[in-house]
Specification:
about 325 residues, alpha/beta, inorganic pyrophosphatase (n-terminal core), Diaminopimelate Epimerase, Chain A, domain 1, 2 domains, 6-stranded parallel beta sheet, 6-stranded mixed beta sheet, 13 helices, about 20% strand, binds guanosine-5'-monophosphate, binds manganese (II) ion
Amino acid sequence: MSIYQDIINAIDNATNIVITSHKSPDGDSIGSSLGLYQFIQKMNKNVSICHPDKAPSFFNWLDNFNAIHLYESAPNKVSELITNADLLFCLDYNHLSRVGDEMQVVLEQFNGKKIVIDHHITPSIDAIITLSDTSVCSTCQLIYDIIDYSDKKQLLDVQIATPLYLGIVTDSGSFRFPSVQPRTHEIASEMLKLGVEHYKVHENTFDTNSISKMKLNGYAISEKLEIVHQNKIAIVSLSLEELERFNYQKGDTEGLVNTALSISGIQVAVLVTEQQEQIRLSFRSKGEYAVNIIANEQFNGGGHKYAAGGSSNISLKDTLDKLKSLLPNYFL
Ligand code: 5GP
Ligand code: MN
C-alpha cells in the first residue's frame, strides 16, 4: 500500500483530528491546512485547525479562514482540541519549535498519533507517517498527491483545490522557482479543470496592498538598501520605529526581500526587521548560494536553499554587524 493510502486510512481510523502548522503563517501553511481540512470534512470526519498565530489579512478571502483556532488568542481552546485529538497533522514544518515556545509545550504533551507532511530538510518530529519531500515546491503539492493517489480522489473539488492552488502559487513564487516540476503544472491544470479561478487567487492575494505598505516598501528600497560583498548581496533593514512610522501591519514587508533579490547581479538578499521581542531575518537567493545554512548555523533558523529565515536576540545594529561579518564565510 502506498504512503498516500496509509494517510487516508489513518484519517479513516481516527475520531478527532487536528491540523497544525507553523508560526507566522504563509500561503502554503494556510493553504495546506484549509485544503486538508475541507477534504477531511468531506470524508465526514471530525477535524479542526489549530495554528499558533493569525495569518495576514490578504488570506481572509479563503473559505473557512475564520474556522482556524489561534493559540495566541484562544490557548485553552487549542490545548483542549489537541489533548482530545487522536490524530495530529504537522503541515509545512518538521521541528516542533516552529510552532513557537508556548504551543510547542502542548504538542510535546500530546501522546496520540502524528503525521508530518512537509518539504523542508531534516525532519525531527516523531510521527507514525512522515511524508517529507524536499524536491517539491510546497506542502500543498503533497496534499494534492495524497488525495489524487488515494481511493478518495472523487472527493476532490474546487473548494479543496483552491487553497491548495494558493499554497503552490505562493511557495513556488508564482511557478518560477527551480522547485517547480512538470507535476506542479499537471496539478495546476487539474485544479483549473476543477474550477479553480486562478486569476482570483492571484488578485485576492497579491493585489491587496495598502498605501502605507507601498510607502514602507518604497522607503525601504530607496533609503535602507545596502549592497555589499562585491555587489552580490543586498541587505534591507527596518527598525521598529521605522515600521511604526509607516503604520506597519502584519504582511507589509512580504515580498520586500524578493524585490531586493530582483536587482541585477544580486545573488543573496536579506531582510532584517526589528520586532517587539527579537530581530527577524529573511533570506532569499538565486543561483548557487544556499541560504538555509547561515540561517540555521547563525540565526536559530533554517529553510530551503533559496528561501530561509531565522531570528536573533541581539540588537538590530549588532545583528547587522554580525550578518555582514559572516558573509565571507558563507558566500565566497
Ligand atoms: P520567510 O523569509 O518567508 O519568513 O521564510 C522563508 C522560509 O524559511 C520559510 O518558508 C521556512 O521554510 C523557513 N524559515 C523561516 N523562518 C524560520 C525559522 O525560524 N526556523 C526555520 N527552521 N525555518 C524558517
Ligand atoms: Mn511551504
